[in-house]
Amino acid sequence: MENTGFPKCLKCNQGDLLPLSDFGSQGASIHYKAWVCSNPNCGFNLKIRNGDIYINEPIINGNNRQH
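Below the sequence we write its predicted structure tokens.
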């Protein structure tokens, strides 16, 4: 198996933790705002919002959002 350089998920030990970025309300990019497990059966996630850390929040498909 190829080493991606990402940390292993300590919850399932099968996936890698992948960093996600986002944009703030002013449009500035926010790097590493969230980390998610690459194993779809695991679902572990870690998010930073307004300086607080949230672990294992429900994952919502963005395609189903109301506009």
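The first strand starts at residue 17 and ends at 23.
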